[in-house]
Amino acid sequence: MVGKEERMDPVWDDLDRTLGQLFMMGFDGTSVTPQIRTLIQQHHLGSILLTAKNLKSAEDTTKLVYELQKCAYDAGHPVPLAIGVDQENGGVNSLFDEIYIRQYPSAMGVAATGSSELAYEVAKATAQEISSCGINWIFGPCLDVLTNSRNQLMGVRSAGDDPQEVSSYGVASMKGYKDVGLATLGKHFPSYGNLEFLGSSLDVPLITESLEQLSLSALIPFRNAIAQGLDSMMVGGCAMSSAGLNVMHACLSDQVVDGLLRTDLKFNGVVVSECLEMEALSHNIGVEGGTVMAVNAGCDMVLLCRSFSVQQEAIAGLKLGIENSMISKARIKQSLRRVLNMKAKCTSWEKALNPPGIGYLSTLQPSHTALSTRAYNSSITVVRDKNRLLPLSNVVEAEEELLLLTPLVKPLAASAASRALSETLVAGSPEPASWERSSSVMSGERVFRELGRSLARQRSGRILHTSYTANGVRPIHENLINRASAIIILTADANRNLYQHGFTKHVAMICNMQYSTGGEKREKPLVVVAVSSPYDFAMDPTIGTYICTYDFTETALNSLVKVLYGELNPTGALPGTISKSQKLNQSKHHWLVEAFNEERDSHALDNLIKTVVEGHGGPPNQRSELSSATSNSFLLQNPDVIEAHFVVRNSSTQALYGFCSTYFFTSTGTGAIGSLFVDPGRRKLSIGHSLHNRAIRTLLQRDGIKRFQLGTRIPNIFLGIPSGHSAERKRLRTWFANLGWNTALSRPVCSMVARNLREWAAPDSVAKSLKSAPADFDLVYGWEYSGPILDHIKTNNRQGLAEVYKLALTDPTACSIIRAKRPEDDAIVGTVVLYYAHSRLAEYVPALRDFGDSAGGISSPVIFPGAAEYSTLMQGLIMLGIKQLRSQGCNACLLDIVDSDGNDDGLSAMGFEPMHTFEEVSCDAATWTMVPPL
C-alpha cells in the first residue's frame, strides 16, 4: 500500500491526469463513442460504469471493455481503467448472455437458501463471469438492512431485515468477489433500508433514524464488511434528519463521509458518491457545486452516469474548486492514493489487455449452470400450504383447466442509468428496447407468458393465462375463475403496487365462495406466488397457500414450476426476522407422488424394504413387519379389490424414498391404507405426509366408499399402526392423529406364532372344555362349500375377510376351512382358514416365510356374534388347526389377524407368543369428505 508520506510517481504531478482518477462516468452506446473517447483521452477519465444499455452479450462486452482499456493505454494512462458494473443477480444484472452468463438468485433469494457457503459460491461464479469479459470492479455487495421491509424500493436486493444475516451473506459474497480478483463496493451507505419518500422527484429520500439507531442495526453489515477488507463504498444521495443530524445529501456531507464512515467505522478504502445527475441533487445544488462538496466531504470518486455535458461540467467544477482553494491538493492526492491502491489490487495492464474472454466462459458454463439451478431450487419458499394444495396434482386432474393470473410489471432497473433510460421508452411499444432485450429480466408480460408455457408443458390439461391491472377483477377474470379448477396468482411487490394486493384478496374471496356440483361449499384451490418481495402476503394467514420466488427471472420461475408440480421439494425459508418474530408456520415439504409402476419400481421397492428392515426402530429382538416382504407382497391382482399404490422416488437414480399401498374392497365399501413406509434416512421430510394425502384423495374418489381403515388383512403385512415398541407406538399414533385419524377408537390386533409343533400338546384345560363345546368341528376345502361359509363371514364387517376366504376356497390343494357347526341345525357358528407355505394365500403373509417351508398358518377366525362360549369355539378351531398342521409335517404355526383385547391369555396358554402387534383404526368416509380439500 502507498503510504501517505511516500512520494508518488511524478506522472501524477499533472493535475488533469490526477483529477481524471477521481471520476467514474458512464455513456450511451454499445461501442466506444466519441464522448467517452474524449473523456478518456483528453480528461484522463480513470473509471467507467457500464450498465445494461452498454452490454449486448458476453462477446460484445469483452470487445467493448478491451477497446476502452486500449483507448486509455494508447492515451498514455499510467494505470488501467477501473471498469465497474452492477451485477447483483436476481433482477439487477447489467450483463446478460443466454449462452455464457448464468442467472442467479437475488440477495434475498440466496439468503432464503440459508447457506452463506452458497452465497460465496454464487458470488465467486458471478465474479468469474464478468471478470472473463475484462470487468474488474463489481458494485456489490448490497449491505442494506430492511429495517422497514414493507415499503422499500430495495426489496429483494437486500438479504433481509436481520443485520447479522445481511452481514453474513454480504461478507460471504464479498469474499467470493475478492477471491476472483475483483474490487468490491459496498452499498448504499449509510443504508437505503428505511427511506421515506416525500413524493416529488425533487425531494430527496429521507433517513429519520438516529445515528444510535443506525449503529445498532443498519451499520452492522457495513462495519463487518470494512473489517473484512471491503475495497470501496458507495455513499447514497439520501437525506438524513434526526436529533443532532441534519444532512441534505449523505454523499455531500463530511459529517457522514469523513465523520461516520472514515472516523467512526475506520474505513480507508475508496468512497464513491451516488450519481450526481440525480434530479433532486442537480436541481437543488448543481453538478459543479455538488462535485466540490462531494470531494470536500471525503468522497474519492464522483459518479456521473450518462450526460456528456454534465460530466464536463463536473470536471470543470472540480478544477474551479481547486483554483479557488476550496479543495486542497493534499486532499486530491489522498483520494488518488486510495484509488491507485484499489486498482493495484484488481488490475494491471497485462490483465486489462488480455481478458480471458469467451474461451474461459465456455469452460465455466457447465458448472455454473448446475450452480444456478441448485441456487434457485434451494431458494423457493413455501411459506404456507394450509390445505395441502401442493403439488397441484393433488387438486387438479389431468383434464382440468388451471388459471394463471399475472400482473403487468416492468423489469427491475440495473442501475440509475438504465432506470433513467427506461423512463423514456414509449408505453405500449410492442418491442422492448435493445438494452432490455439484453438484460437479465424480460418485461413482466414476456417472462410471465413463458411461465404459462412452462406450466402447460408439464401437464395435459389446458392452462388459462391472462394478466390483471389496476382496473381490478373484470368480468373476464370472473369467467375464467369459475371455469378453472384451480388458480395461481402472481404478485410483484404488492405492498407498493396496492392494486395487486386488492386484486388478490378479491380473487381469494371469490374462491372461498365456490360451491361443488352437489351444492356443498368447497373452497376453490388458490395458490399465491410472490415473485419479488416475500412480504406481500407473508403475514396474511387468509392466503392459505403462499410461495415466494424472490425474483421473476426465467430461471426462478422454472424452479417454481418444479415446486408446483411436485418435481422439486422446496427447502427455502423466509430470511431475516419475519419468520421468527411472527412465528410463521413453516410449510411442510410437498413431494411429487407417483403411481407405482411394477416394471419400473419393483426392484427399487425391494431395496427400500431392505433399507427399512435394516433401519427399523424397534428393539433388536423384534423383527420388522417387512422382514420377509417383497414388492410382490403388495400386489393382490384380485378382481374384487381395486388397488392403487404410490411412490415418492428420485427420477434420476430411480431410488424410492417412500411407498404407500391402498386397496378398495368392493364387498364392504372399505378403503384401506395397507402400508406406508419411508426410507429411515429421509424421515421428517414430509414424504409420508405427501403419500398419505395422495392415498386419501384416491380412495375418496372410489364409488361406494363407506369407510376408511388403517391396515389390511390382505395383504397381511401391516394390520394397522405398529405398536410393539412403546416409544414408536406413541410417535406413530400422534403422527396419524395429526393427519385426522381418531386413534383413540383404535382396536388392538396381533399376529402370534406357536413354535416346535412336533413337541406341542393341547393344554388339559382346553381339551376338557372342548368336550362340552356347543359345536361340531370339521374340515372342508373347495369352492363347493363356499355358499354357507361366505354367508357366515358376512356377520363380521372387517375388510378383507371375504377375499381371504375366497383365496382359500379356490386353492383346495394348499388351503382348507375348519368349521364349527351347531349340532341341532348345522348352522355355521365359527370358521378359520388353514393354509400352507406353498399356498397362494401365503404369498400375502410375508411373516410366514420367516419360519421356512415347514410352517403353516391359521387366519381370519370368525365367530358368530350370538354364539355361546366364544372363547371355547375360538380355542377349538385353533387347536384343530394346529393338529392338522402337525399331521402335514409343519413345525410352526402363524396365527394372524387376531383381536388382542382379551384373547391373548387363552392363546398364550395354547403355546402362542405375540410376534407383531397393531392398532387397527377405522372411520366413516364422511370423516374425510368434511375436511378441507387435499
From TrEMBL:
Q: Which Gene3D superfamilies match?
A: Glycoside hydrolase family 3 C-terminal domain, Glycoside hydrolase, family 3, N-terminal domain
For the keyword rRNA-binding, the answer is no
Task: Name the Gene Ontology molecular function terms of this record.
Answer: acyltransferase activity, transferring groups other than amino-acyl groups; hydrolase activity, hydrolyzing O-glycosyl compounds
Q: Which residues form the N-acetyltransferase domain?
A: 645-716
Domain of life of the source: Eukaryota
In terms of Pfam families, this protein maps to: Acetyltransf_1, Glyco_hydro_3
Q: Name one GO biological process term.
A: peptidoglycan turnover
Question: Is the keyword 4Fe-4S assigned to this protein?
Answer: no
UniProt cross-references to InterPro entries, sorted A to Z:
Acyl_CoA_acyltransferase, GH, Glyco_hydro_3_C_sf, Glyco_hydro_3_N, Glyco_hydro_3_N_sf, GNAT_dom, NagZ_Beta-hexosaminidase
Tell me which residues make up the Glycoside hydrolase family 3 N-terminal domain: 15-341
Keywords assigned: Glycoprotein, Glycosidase, Hydrolase
Family in the record: Belongs to the glycosyl hydrolase 3 family.
Q: What is this protein called?
A: Glycoside hydrolase
Task: Provide the species name.
Answer: Eremomyces bilateralis CBS 781.70
